[in-house]
Structure formats: C-alpha cells, structure tokens
C-alpha cells in the first residue's frame, strides 16, 4: 500500500516522467539494442582517436564512468595503439526508442556569458541565487531502491512537504537564499538557467564562474514550444536567436513567456568553466547531456548527426543532464564558450543516431 501511495505522490508532485525507461544500462536486459561492429560505425575511420581517448580518460576520473568501464579506464592510460584499443575492447549497440522513430534529436548548449555586479544597483537588479536554505531534496532510493533516480523537492509548511515556489512565485515571496551576484538582464539570466553554467563579468573587473547547484523541483517546460503553440514563431524558425528577437520585440510579454517555465535553477560558484553532472569540466564537441533514465551518466557513446550542415560522427561522453533532454534518442552537445558557440547552439536541431559503447566483457547475447 505504501508503494502505491508513493507513486501517487510522485504523480502529483510533478517529478520526471512515470514511464519506465527501456534502456537499463547496469543490468542490460529488455533493451532495444542492435549489436554493431565498431569498425562499421559511420565514418569510424575518420574519427580523431587521440581526442576520443583523452575525452574517455578525463571522464574516467568520475566514479560513474569508472564503475561502468573499470579496467578499461586503467588500460586507457597505458594504451599505445589507440585505434586498436577501441576496436578490441568495445562493442557498439545502436539505441532505438519505443515509437520506432528512425532517428533522434541533437541540440546544442554552451557556456553563457553575462554582465553583473556583487551589489544590487541599476542596471544590475536581477539576482542569481544559490540553493535556498529551505529547499528540501528527498532521495527516494534511500527508502525505495526501485525508485532510483527519483527525487522530491519542496519546502516544509506546518510539517508538510509542499511544492517549492515556481518562477512566478519567487517575485512575491521572501526567499531564504544567498544572492551570488546581480545581472543586468532577466532574459540572459533565464538562458543561463537553461544552459546550466556560465560566466559573469563583474563591473569591478572580476569574473565569476557559475555552475548548476539545484532546481526548484518543477518540470522544465519549453518556452519555444509555447511560442509555437501560440503561433508567434513557426516550428521551422524556432531557435535561441528567434526567441530572443521575439522577447526584444514584445517587452510587455517577457514575464508571460518566462513564467511559462515554472522550473528555476540555482547556482554555485566554481573555480573553472562549464562542468556537467559528473562534476568534471565539459569538453567542447565531446561532452553531451542525456536523459539519465535511459542513458547512464558516464557512458561512452558514438554520435552521428550534423552541426551547421556539416556531418559529424564521433565518440562522445555522457557527462551532463538537462530538463529538456528526454528520451533514449535525445542528446545535447556542449559546444563551448563565446558567441560562436552560442550561435551554433541556438540553431542546432539535427537528426541523431546513437550507439552505446560497451566493454566486450559485458556483451549482450
């Protein structure tokens, strides 16, 4: 009975989706995977094996990657024939989804850049918050192991855990959270939350690196889809750039649009640039964000897609997550820092094929 009550709570408390994942990487049964010889992967012979190996070794510094690949992380440090290492030690399995779609979707993200101040003053009036002190995060797996990766987020009111403030509610409530700094644009701050990390150039000449700390527990909702559904921007033309242009043209509707996404991200200061959910610095063009309910963090994948109308095929590491990344055939590739990365990420929306690279000792029969 307690189990069903908990499932009901999960449903009304808007965390994640209730659908069971098809790809269970750690146990590897009941998965829709097609074994593939790694040498037959698209453009495999053109892969930059040295860069791929460096990306793998960097990810092996995390517990999650090391848990998956163990001895191969150690072997990677000593290997001399890099191409042979990949071919002889790994087997590729093509991922598929329940709706039998032929390809998935690749989008891009970048490390945002903002202008700010440590003191609230015009034009720096929009606060960047640390995790609120009254935000409670409940790891459900500590009580119900079968609910691994599920969390409850909320706040206590009269002894009851209720949903935390939405983006709109933040304006009219006193928030018990430290302000890291203030920035000059609520729009740029919103997209900082979407990207998950960024840099703030302060008016005193210093710079702050910001990384994801937590979020308010509300499900991410795409403002791009909102504009499409309202016939404000066509699906064909939706992009970061077109959304920003719309916001600039409709200043009286900024709050309407931004508040549609009730999810709100909180940050922490870091000593380096963009880092992902593994706590490692992200590698441009080699780090991707995935849906961890389908693809485990720390896993190595082979990606086949296009960026800027150029075909790309390469080994990537699942080192991050994102509220908009849902499904087995869905990935967000990190493109780096600066305007060039922002422009690429803003318009990237390409078909995607993915293969997961497993140690041969774990091959599926």
TL;DR?
It contains 10 helices and 16 strands. The chain has 365 residues and is of the alpha+beta class. The N terminus is likely disordered.
Structure description:
This protein has 365 residues and is of the alpha+beta class. Among the domains are: 157 residues, Barwin-like endoglucanases (Beta Barrel), CATH 2.40.40; 39 residues, no CATH class. The protein contains ten helices and 16 strands. Strands 3-15-12-14-13-16 form a six-stranded mixed beta barrel. The protein is globular and about 60 Å long. It starts with a helix and ends in a 6-residue tail after the last strand.
Task: Summarize the SSE layout with pairings.
Elements lengths: L1 H11 L20 E4 L12 H11 L3 H7 L1 H8 L3 H8 E6 L8 E14 L8 E4 L6 E4 L11 E7 L2 E3 L16 E5 L2 H10 L1 E6 L4 E9 L7 H7 L10 H10 L4 H7 L4 E6 L16 E3 L10 E8 L2 E11 L9 E8 L1 H9 L2 E10 L6
Parallel strand pairs: 3-9, 3-15, 12-14
Antiparallel strand pairs: 1-2, 2-16, 3-8, 3-16, 4-8, 5-6, 6-7, 9-10, 10-11, 12-15, 13-14, 13-16
Biggest β-sheet, characterized? 6 strands, mixed, barrel
CATH fold category name of one domain: Barwin-like endoglucanases
Helix/strand/pairing category: alpha+beta
**Strand element count:** 16
Give the N-to-C terminal Cα separation: 37 Å
The H/E string reads HEHHHHEEEEEEEHEEHHHEEEEEHE
Q: Supply the CATH architecture of one domain.
A: Beta Barrel
Count of separate DSSP helical elements: 10
The CATH homologous superfamily of one domain is termed RlpA-like domain
């Amino acid at each position: 009975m307690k189990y069903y009550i908990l499932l009901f709570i999960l449903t009304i408390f808007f965390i994640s989706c209730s659908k069971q994942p098809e790809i269970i990487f750690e146990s590897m049964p009941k998965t829709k995977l097609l074994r593939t010889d790694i040498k037959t992967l698209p453009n495999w012979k053109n892969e930059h094996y040295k860069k791929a190996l460096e990306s793998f070794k960097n990810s092996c510094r995390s517990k999650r990657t090391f848990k998956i690949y163990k001895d191969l992380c150690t072997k990677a440090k000593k290997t001399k024939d890099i191409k042979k290492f990949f071919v002889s030690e790994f087997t590729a399995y093509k991922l598929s989804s329940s709706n039998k779609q032929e390809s998935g979707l690749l989008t891009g993200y970048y490390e945002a850049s903002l202008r700010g101040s440590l003191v609230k003053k015009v034009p720096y009036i929009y606060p960047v918050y640390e995790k609120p002190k009254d935000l409670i995060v409940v790891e459900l797996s500590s009580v119900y192991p079968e609910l691994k990766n599920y969390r409850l987020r909320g706040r206590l009111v009269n002894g009851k855990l209720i949903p935390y403030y939405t983006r709109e509610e933040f304006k009219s409530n006193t928030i018990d959270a430290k302000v890291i700094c203030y920035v000059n644009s609520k729009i740029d701050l919103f997209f900082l939350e979407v990207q998950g990390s960024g840099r703030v150039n302060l008016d005193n000449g210093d710079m702050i690196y910001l990384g994801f700390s937590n979020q308010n527990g509300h499900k991410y909702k795409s403002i791009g889809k909102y504009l499409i559904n309202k016939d404000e921007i066509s699906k064909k033309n939706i992009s970061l750039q077109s959304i920003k242009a719309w916001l600039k043209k409709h200043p009286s509707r900024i709050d309407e649009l931004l508040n549609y996404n009730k999810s709100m991200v909180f940050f922490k200061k870091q000593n380096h640039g963009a880092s992902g959910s593994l706590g490692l610095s992200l590698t441009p063009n080699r780090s991707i964000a995935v849906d961890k309910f389908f693809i485990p963090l720390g896993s190595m994948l082979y990606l086949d897609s296009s960026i800027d109308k150029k075909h790309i095929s390469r080994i990537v590491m699942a080192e991050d997550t994102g509220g908009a990344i849902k499904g087995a055939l869905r990935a967000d590739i990190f493109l780096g820092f600066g305007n060039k990365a922002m422009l690429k990420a803003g318009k990237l929306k390409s078909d995607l094929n993915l293969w997961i690279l497993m140690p041969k000792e774990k091959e599926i029969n």
